[in-house]
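If you are new to this repository, start here. Below is one unmodified record pulled from the training split, so you can see the exact layout before writing a loader.
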Amino acid sequence: MKVLLANPKGFCAGVRRAVEIVNKALEIYGSPLYVKHEIVHNKFVVEQLKEKGVVFVDKIEDVPEGKVVVFSAHGSAPEEYEKAKERNLTVVDATCPLVTKVHLEARRYTREGYCIILIGHKGHIEVLGTAAEGKDNVYIIETEEEAKEIKFDDGKKLAYLTQTTLSVEETKNIIAILKKRFPEITAPPSSDICFSTTNRQMAVKEIAEKSQVVLVVGSKSSSNSNRLREAAESVGARAYLIDGADEIEESWLAGVETVGVTAGASAPDISIGGVVDFLKDVGASEFEEVVSVEEKIHFPLPKIG
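And here is the target side for that same chain:
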């Protein structure tokens, strides 16, 4: 059995920065350290940080007054910062800079009187945070059908934005429909879909075209990991989304000559390494890294403490 390893895979610059921010804040402030929402959508990373004294909370009200709170990589609504201020909390902001870009676009379009069509998954933490920037002026759509049905009064200024972790393919048709229906709609200055998401989708397709099975390391709650599984399936491979090697079923590999391995942007190296070790144990004899694009982006840490 041959194994094709996608490159790039695993931690992106935004996730690496967010995890480093939490570890730095632990060094400076000690534990317990409160983090609003999961810092990134990965089960292993979250459990590892819990062991170090991180307490994950869903609401600002769950953080004791006067304590330190880290805001997750996915971005938070403006009112969350206000609530933190009211509770005299020290805020350490781990929002991915690419998510911040979309927030700033939403604020600008709102200020300039636009109605914003936000393409993304309803209920996803990133989408909720972005939508809160424009309040009643933001309309969330997920599907081509919704793009065909959404209505606005004549003369309304329209702009669209997208969730950063969507696939280029799934947004392409939605954007085309919006542009056809609303020729004057304003696009963001550059794509909102993050380069890491796009790079990983290109990489997984490249290995999936040569593989019967693709193993995607990532958590079920991770949007970009789910998109990788779908991308692999779109070119004909069977694909499975797994948190780690313990979730692999050997029956998936029966009679398989080539297996592809990739990982979502929030999956750590240790989880990827565990999958590689498992494949060695069940007889994989050849490993090849398939480099689609080199990632050299690094996001500096904010000032902490």
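Two things worth knowing about this chain: The chain is about 40% helix and 20% strand. The two ends are 51 Å apart (CA to CA).
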